[in-house]
């Protein structure tokens, strides 16, 4: 039964990853590929800055950002954003000075709905930060690194995530808070 559930989720993941290609053909609103100027969510660190996803402050700085994104607007207000390219970030424990430099290039595809909810899929090496509600919903620490397929659903209100759950986490993950301790 477990293999059946995992197989069904994997099929859903593949279907979701294929949506941008089909959507591109169906919509005339395509902004084209543009550089990603803020690779860290503003609720965590504002791109380069300090966030508190762990029990200590974490400084996040961009080492290399050659990411590009393409956003496609769909009828009904949904949009799909694909992010590809190289992204290397440094994560520093403010208390101890311990620093990790990680290639978190992904890539990722995000479906954003007008109500602030959405679904993000990632493959390759990625980083994920969770606020208190996201940690409660996922059981994850505040900051993790993942390798391999991942699908997460989320809701955002007033610019901040209110809920986040993992639909699929296949591959490996590391507790970045523990690595930085």
Summarize this structure briefly.
The protein has helices spanning 2-26, 132-138, 176-180; strands at 34-35, 49-51, 58-65, 68-73, 79-84, 87-93, 99-103, 108-112, 117-122, 125-129, 143-147, 150-157, 160-169, 172-175.
Give a structural overview.
- With 181 residues, the chain is α+β, with helices and mostly antiparallel strands.
- It has one domain.
- Helices cover 20% and strands 44% of the residues.
- It contains 3 helices and 14 strands.
- A hairpin with a 6-residue loop joins β2 and β3.
- The longest helix has 25 residues.
- The N terminus is likely disordered.
Please outline the helices and strands.
Layout: H1 2-26, E1 34-35, E2 49-51, E3 58-65, E4 68-73, E5 79-84, E6 87-93, E7 99-103, E8 108-112, E9 117-122, E10 125-129, H2 132-138, E11 143-147, E12 150-157, E13 160-169, E14 172-175, H3 176-180
Antiparallel strand pairs: 1-4, 2-3, 3-6, 4-5, 5-8, 6-7, 8-9, 9-12, 10-11, 11-14, 12-13
Low-confidence stretches: 1-28, 42-49
Gross geometry: globular
Walk across the major sheet and give the strand order: 1-4-5-8-9-12-13
Number of helices: 3
What does the average pLDDT come to?
76
The rounded distance between the terminal residues' Cα atoms is 39 Å
**Could you spell the SSE succession in H and E letters?**
HEEEEEEEEEEHEEEEH
- Domain count: 1
Question: How would you name the oligomeric state of the polypeptide chains in this document?
Answer: single chain
Profile the largest sheet: 7 strands, antiparallel
- In percent, how much strand structure appears in the residues? 35-45%
